[in-house]
Amino acid sequence: MNRENKRKQYAKGYYKTHANHDSFTCKVCGRPVMPNGAGTDQRNHCPNCLSSLHVDIEPGDRQANCGGIMDPVAVWVRKGGEWAIIHRCRRCGELSSNRIAADDNPMKLMSIAMKPVADPPFPLDKIEEMTALMAGDGQLKF
């Protein structure tokens, strides 16, 4: 590959329009990550631990100077039912959303999705009392 083509390959925004076929080793769990199996052109997180690196400002632009580890903190459902992962950067705190990949760890995805249910911001033993305070009769009906 000559210099001109190599420079063009890494020009600003290159990965927005070209598939990224690079393999990498996850900085969190140490597993090798291959681009095949993701179901998308951009592999942006580890399919095992779902962690990522803060390298983009806009998806695929590789313009972020932070480089911090992005921890998966939540999942959400996009229009059409597709799941996405919310990542938060350990270094700068920025939040970003990434589509899940076809080979992502389903148990890790479910554990992130269920975290608010398993650890609510209020004591579960007080739910009847709180229901009564909200003008309910305090009884759970099924």
Provide an overview of this structure:
The longest helix is centred in the last third of the chain and has 13 residues, at 106-118. This protein has helices at 3-9, 14-17, 106-118, 127-133, and strands at 24-25, 32-33, 52-53, 69-77, 83-89, 95-99. The chain is an alpha+beta fold. The chain is elongated. A four-stranded antiparallel sheet has the order 3-4-5-6, with helices on one face. Strands 1-2 form a two-stranded antiparallel ribbon.
Please give a handful of descriptors for the protein shown.
single chain, 4 helices, elongated, disordered N terminus, two-stranded antiparallel sheet, alpha+beta, RNHCP, four-stranded antiparallel sheet, RNHCP domain-containing protein, 142 residues
Can you summarize this structure?
Residues 22-110 form the RNHCP domain. With 142 residues, the protein is an alpha+beta fold.
